[in-house]
């Protein structure tokens, strides 16, 4: 390689690294003025001006108003434009498989859904079919992204169970999945980086990044559905534990009788407040489940609003159990905020006052309680955020060449 060619290559490398530094600063802290970009990256004003102009022309950053004037000419603010990049998101839930294409600004641009697997199938059959559904949805998302001229750059997967850092779902009882290498299967099929995470964890990430938890460093998101789980953010970071099972409060033991039982599937707490537990208790109280299907928390909330005395009693008992779990979390983690999500998020008016009353005077500090701001999209948005973080700096810069 000649001296001139080597020098040119080195200059291009430095330019790409500097562009990445600007994009990272705007993604993490933006919108920022050019002066603030220089302060955060250490780049000179001339370098920031030159590279910002290049990124503006490429559409990777956009102007976003002006900084308040302090007497002189107000500075133009620049903002990272995530519309230039897409990730695929897969939420394999107990009752449906949902997919989405999401840009780096958190906007959902395309959705896919698959029907529920019939309950008559054996567990092994259900597990296989749910996996095939997941692979099919990801394939469909990839085709949709390609059709938009914006190929997906990573895949985020949310599951109602424990998922290791290697993308292996070690146990998801609602799906009958045990030791399923979801991450490697998807990566081999698509060639893309894949992150697989517990659905409560990604809900916590979504709310922390774009929802009720913005600006909060220590929070817990409690998700009630087929089971119950929590996502934990401490010091602004997702806490997963040594084996990625932090937040599996469905396995909390509630009294001495719990020690006389084993819980190979759903845990002690979720066997009482999850869909199966609610259905059992509803039957004991003479509450009919709609269409003969298992009763869900959402059904209980609807019955309470319609004036059912029996449903109100069941809700109060459910709140007792949830409050015990939240109280234990508060004494260990001392969160500033507890977010209620999943089926509970849509009934915050029924949930949060009862939880607060049960905590006052029983824990050192009662956290602020709030409903999920992102609602049904919280898991999708959180999984998209984790997938976006997978994308390396070089992927950001590839489009700038």
Described by strand count, sense and barrel closure, the largest sheet is: 5 strands, mixed
Helix content: 40-55%
* Tally of discrete structural domains: 3
CATH topology of the largest domain: Nucleotidyltransferase, domain 5
Number of strands: 16
Structural class: alpha/beta
How would you name the CATH homologous superfamily of the largest domain? Answer: ATPase, nucleotide binding domain
Corresponding CATH architecture of the largest domain: 2-Layer Sandwich
The total of helices stands at 13
Overall, the morphology is globular
The low-confidence parts are: 392-397
Distance between the termini: 21 Å
- What fraction of the residues are assigned to beta strands by DSSP? 15-25%
Sheet with most strands: strand arrangement: 6-5-4-7-11
Folded structure, characterized:
- With 401 residues, this protein is an alpha/beta fold.
- It has helices spanning 3-29, 34-41, 45-58, 123-147, 182-190, 199-210, 270-273, 275-284, 297-305, 309-333, 348-359, 378-390, 393-398, and strands at residues 32-33, 61-66, 76-80, 86-92, 97-103, 108-114, 152-159, 162-163, 169-172, 177-180, 194-198, 219-224, 228-234, 237-239, 337-342, 368-371.
- It is 43% helix and 21% strand.
- The chain has 3 domains: 3-80, Arc Repressor Mutant, subunit A (Orthogonal Bundle); 84-203 and 380-398, Nucleotidyltransferase, domain 5 (2-Layer Sandwich), CATH 3.30.420; 213-373, Nucleotidyltransferase, domain 5.
- It has 13 helices and 16 strands.
- Strands 6-5-4-7-11 form a 5-stranded mixed sheet, sandwiched between helices.
- Helix 4 (123-147) runs parallel beside helix 5 (182-190), helix 6 (199-210) packs across helix 12 and helix 10 crosses helix 11 (348-359).
- The chain starts with a helix and ends with a helix.
